[in-house]
Amino acid sequence: MPIYDFITELLELEDIILKDFSFTDTEIHLSFSLKRKPTVCPCCGFITEQVHDYRPSTIKDLPVMGKQLLLHYNKRRYHCPSCNKHFYEPFHLLPKYCRITTRLAFYSLHMLKNRYSVRNAATFLGISDSTIFRRLKDVRYPKPDRLPTVLSIDEFRGNSGGQKFHAILTDAHNHELFDILPTRSQTDLMLYLNTFKNKKEVRYFITDMNRVYKDLAVQYFPNATIVIDKFHVVRYATWALENVRKRVQKQMLPSKRKYFKRSRRLLLSHRENLNEESLLALEVMLSQSNDLAVAYHLKELFFDFMKSPDRTEAGRRLKFFILAAEASNLPEFNACLTMLRNWSKYILNAFDCPYTNGYTEGTNNAIKVIKRNAFGYRNFRNFRNRIFLALT
Ligand SMILES: [Zn+2]
Fold first, then answer.
1. Range of the domain at 73
2. 287 in the same domain as 254
3. pTM of the predicted model over 0.85
4. Separation of 96 CA from ligand 1 center, angstroms?
5. 74 and 180 share a domain?
6. Which of 263, 258, 254, 317 is nearest to 286 (CA)?
7. 293-346: pLDDT as tens digits
């Protein structure tokens, strides 16, 4: 096989007529032309083979063996005798007005999909960040047609498109990203959800303690069980305990204070995770303050409640916790009690719901990585595309 044929086949450039090639330490240069052939005029449909002129152009292609591949070619312009217009010959590897091949553009998006940052992909491929961003803008992830049966909502700080927070919707049953919305405002969410015709098919709506989301669910999803994910609940008890520790600690001598601060892990850990030595140290800590001992006991009760095997038992343990927390008269537990009074109905739903916000939380973490690698996406569409590319 002649060497030129071999090269074009290897590089999957079979349609070209290779005229020359050369290489340096960092670059491979190929010069080629395309076969002159009867071509349809895009203006009038006439078939012509008349050449008007040639324009030299250099195109970047996918790197080969770590070297930049540059294609040099005299772009032919045909003349149409029927309408007198001139037009470039079509070349499947090269979209209109582009200086990089289609496959290079696709590969850049493929790299983003594999969690490369735009910067890293651009450096690796020898193209600019803005070239990738332009391609990203052309990607389309249309709004879905139907809501999933298990819809989970959360928000994340995005700072894109002039909005601080964006809403993220996921399908918690299939563990799939459902959509990313530019804002989390009630009006925008209403406008968005309103367009779906299958709102009655949503069986579970999983959210954090956000009144806007809850009200939306009540209004739009008549058949859905609203569930507050346990993940968002459990920290109220640890916050309360932490605040009691801080108050108690303030009244101590500096050396003891330091010890307490260092040992707060003992207070916050699940009791069953502590070894004998830690348990002894914990007992010493608790013996220093009655308030702290009570707060600790309440936290343990709360953890017990969170671990309830079913809804009935959870209801029983919750009642018990509320009575104990009220009787303790510890002001640090007021926020926790208020939260429970407002939300207990939906929190209890979590105990017989097989779904959690776990997937959404995981997605949020992945988004954080994308944001870190991207110096912020000012354009929301790009940002949304970027997330969909990486996560779907
Ligand atoms: Zn024509």
1. 3-94
2. yes
3. no
4. 18
5. no
6. 263
7. 999 999 999 999 999 999 999 999 999 999 999 999 999 999 999 999 999 999
